[in-house]
Recover the amino acids of this structure.
């Protein structure tokens, strides 16, 4: 009998009840039937039918074991349980254990990336298996969000990190170094997104304004407001905001862990609140009513907790992410023309239910894990804040009430007390105490090379074992565009763009923090500021359909093809 999507879906539904017992076996059985489905159409080739709305959700740093862990602790099925669809291969161009930047680049652009690169071509390719999924080095690569916007769709990003962080940045900007939040943030402001809900306000403001960190003098919050966005900073403002353009910046940097919000950040919204609001705003947008919308959602800090080997943070933010998935799927069920795809970029921490110290794994009762974890009230980061400068009595009280450990051993108490006195990081001291009591193990403080789960819901949903790059290409196809054509439209190298038309060009670096591409014909000149989508010519400001992007490592500038048409008309 031939391959059948229907049979695969029936198999998923039949097996989902046993996921809580052994999700690994479920997935293995599913992939045996479904691997053939995990391929994306080549650029321009026919594939599944178009879909109006796409919601792509990514839980950063979430390996397979995180899901059964939070299911046990929740004590009930997860929202993702009924939409398990397969797995994703996550390796990058230069490592079988990928970083968030190339991991997100793969989903966003359909190409494998190099460590630290944000939606630009890989420049270091050492993995043979990746060589057929590589673009020219350092060249900016068009993203799903950019393609969705040019297709007429409303677009949005939601994240619990600062929006300039690697994963959300990869859908909305282009640079070779993920740490340059100022460059990435400026591109995002000029990207033409309709809804942005995240943290990161300090990277939008100049140092001359309290709380700002930008050294280029740009006040991007003022630019955001001038572009017609309603700018909100609290969950109460978010709850009531209306309109087609909303920018929410709820923290100077990253937002708080979900479990820490009540204690430390009560004005911040939950991820599910931001996701639901983004869907409401985008779906009501006139552009969406005609052509649909694209929304990218990241649960950012599962990864951060896993780097710290903090099980409280993982449980907190993965449960919050699952709630956000529920909001997206609920909308998709009502809408009927929305595809929801849920992935991770890589694993982090290598968390395991079970450790070497407890060799009698076959008698592990769920209470051993659930009991300690359900007593936790804050993350390790929260414990560190609460115990800053604490005396002995407060140490014992906080560890009991907030970390669920009322039986501190003498050595544990001494380690905490000494660390506080020496003003050293406390998280590495307290997280092993919780992990040990909950019988949770760790293999690393870094990333892991695991295949990650794929969940999906909607018309002709992706099923099977996929390359991360093919997820991106498939979603582009479902929205009616391909990356080859999109890249040709959005990113033309300066020499190829202007020399054949008789223009000359140079880069004005008189303001080193705000370089400008100057294009001339005779005495007439036009100025195209880097990282913006505008041409300044003949006393006018003309908006372009894409960004002017510097490929610094190539000493080249890339412009939308539209820029050539504009300059031919303006520079007589």
């Amino acid at each position: 009998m031939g391959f059948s999507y229907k049979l695969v879906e029936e198999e998923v539904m039949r097996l989902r009840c046993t996921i809580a017992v052994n999700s690994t076996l479920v997935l293995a059985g599913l992939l045996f039937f479904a691997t053939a489905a995990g391929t994306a159409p080549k650029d321009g080739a026919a594939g599944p039918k178009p879909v109006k709305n796409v919601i792509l959700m990514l839980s950063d740093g979430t390996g397979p074991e995180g899901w059964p862990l939070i299911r046990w602790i929740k004590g009930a099925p997860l929202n993702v349980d009924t939409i398990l669809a397969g797995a994703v291969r996550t390796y990058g161009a230069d490592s079988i254990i990928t970083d968030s930047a190339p991991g997100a680049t793969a989903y966003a652009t359909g190409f494998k990336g190099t460590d630290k690169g944000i939606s630009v071509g890989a420049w270091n390719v050492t993995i043979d298996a990746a060589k057929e999924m590589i673009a020219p080095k350092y060249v900016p690569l068009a993203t799903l969000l950019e393609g969705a916007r040019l297709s007429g769709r409303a677009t949005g990003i939601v994240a619990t990190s600062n929006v300039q962080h690697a994963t959300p940045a990869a859908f909305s900007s282009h640079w070779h170094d993920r740490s340059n939040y100022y460059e990435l943030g400026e591109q995002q402001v000029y990207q033409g997104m309709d809804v942005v809900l995240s943290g990161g306000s300090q990277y939008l403001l100049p140092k001359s304004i309290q709380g700002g960190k930008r050294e280029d003098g740009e006040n991007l919050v003022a630019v955001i407001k001038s572009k017609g966005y309603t700018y909100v900073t609290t969950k109460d403002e978010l709850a009531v905001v209306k309109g087609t353009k909303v920018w929410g910046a709820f923290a100077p940097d990253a937002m708080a862990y979900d479990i820490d919000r009540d204690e430390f950040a009560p004005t911040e919204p939950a991820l599910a609140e931001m996701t639901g609001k983004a869907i409401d705003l985008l779906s009501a947008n006139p552009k969406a009513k005609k052509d649909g919308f694209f929304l990218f959602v990241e649960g950012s800090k599962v990864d951060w907790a896993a780097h710290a080997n903090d099980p409280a943070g993982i449980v907190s933010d993965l449960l919050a992410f699952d709630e956000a998935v529920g909001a997206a799927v609920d909308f998709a069920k009502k809408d009927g023309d929305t595809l929801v795809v849920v992935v991770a970029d890589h694993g982090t921490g290598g968390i395991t239910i079970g450790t070497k110290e407890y060799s009698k794994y076959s008698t592990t009762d769920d209470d051993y894990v659930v009991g300690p974890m359900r007593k936790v009230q804050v993350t390790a980061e929260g414990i560190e804040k609460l115990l800053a400068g604490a005396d002995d009595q407060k140490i014992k009280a906080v560890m009991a009430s907030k970390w669920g450990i009322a039986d501190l051993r003498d050595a544990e108490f001494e380690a905490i007390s000494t660390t506080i006195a020496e003003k050293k990081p406390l998280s590495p001291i307290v997280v092993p105490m919780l992990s040990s009591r909950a019988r949770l193990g760790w293999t690393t403080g870094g990333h892991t090379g695991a295949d990650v789960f794929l969940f999906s819901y909607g018309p002709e949903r992706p099923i099977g074992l996929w390359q991360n790059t093919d997820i991106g290409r498939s979603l582009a196809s479902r929205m009616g565009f391909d990356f080859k054509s999109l890249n040709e439209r959005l990113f033309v190298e300066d020499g190829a763009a202007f020399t054949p038309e008789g223009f000359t060009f140079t880069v004005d670096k008189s303001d080193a923090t705000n370089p400008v591409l100057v294009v001339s014909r005779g005495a007439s000149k036009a100025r195209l500021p880097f990282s913006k989508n505008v041409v300044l010519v003949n006393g006018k400001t003309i908006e372009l359909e894409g960004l002017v992007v510097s490929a610094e490592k190539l000493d080249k500038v890339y412009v939308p093809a539209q820029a050539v048409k504009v300059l031919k008309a303006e520079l007589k």
Summary: The CA atoms of residues 276 and 330 lie 10 Å apart.
